[in-house]
Write a structure and sequence with these properties.
Strand 3, helix 9 and strand 4 form a beta-alpha-beta unit. Helices cover about 45% and strands about 10% of the residues. It is of the alpha/beta class and about 220 residues long.
């Protein structure tokens, strides 16, 4: 990844695939946010890392926020960068609530013995119509994990982040809206937000050059090194 190569020019980089994501094996049972935090902490301690900066995109940001709310860590986090970070739970609209109800009703119906025998692919078709792409493509264990992750609201934990925090966001982000970034900038004590007009949830790919320069300046303290 271009970002890893860019940062590796002036920092040692560890880029982890969380269990169930990327090339890592899935957990045996569904994990919640605390399980992922424990995994990260064990990795950092296994590498005997005493100080580090953290960058988290989307779910990685959610994990990072929760991590920085843990007490008695045996390592120091100096700076945090959140890119299109998840972690804020929004009220579900009436339309979405109805879709969820219809999905649950449909799921019960298609799992009855008669329907399941006559239409064995009907459940997959139902998931394809009602679920998100990530959810549809996930295994049953990871579907349960995703549900656990997205339902934990971290709004109350944001003010507890006591390290300089850089927020990088696309104004056209449909996964984690720009309003989330504006709230984070407001409640995290030492946070700054950089907005990228018309960029999506994958702003780090769309605005690559700018992102790399901003991250380098932030991590190096604004000095030319």
């Amino acid at each position: 990844m271009a970002m890893i190569n860019s940062i590796a020019e002036y920092r040692k980089v560890y880029c982890l695939d969380m269990p169930g994501f990327g090339k890592s094996e899935e957990p045996k049972i569904a994990w919640d946010l605390n399980d992922y935090i424990e995994f990260i902490i064990k990795f950092i301690e296994s590498q005997q890392i005493k100080e580090l900066d953290i960058i988290g995109h989307s779910n990685g940001g959610r994990i990072s926020i929760k991590l920085l709310n843990q007490k008695n860590l045996h390592f120091k986090v100096n700076k945090l960068i959140l890119i299109g970070s998840a972690g804020i739970v929004h009220k579900i609209s009436f339309t979405k609530r109805m879709r969820v109800k219809l999905f649950k009703i449909g799921k019960k119906i298609v799992q009855t013995k008669i329907i399941k025998k006559k239409y064995p692919d009907l459940l997959d078709k139902l998931k394809s119509r009602f679920g998100s792409e990530d959810y549809r493509n996930a295994s049953p264990v990871m579907q349960q994990s995703l549900v656990k992750l997205i339902h934990e609201d971290l709004k109350e934990e944001l003010p507890n982040i006591q390290v300089p925090t850089l927020l990088l966001w696309g104004t056209a982000d449909m996964e984690t809206p720009i309003e989330d970034a504006e709230l984070m900038e407001k409640v995290i004590p030492d946070a700054g937000l950089v907005k990228f007009e018309n960029a999506s949830h994958y702003v780090f790919l769309e605005k690559m050059g700018q992102i790399h320069r901003i991250i380098k300046t932030f991590l190096q303290g604004g000095e030319n090194k």
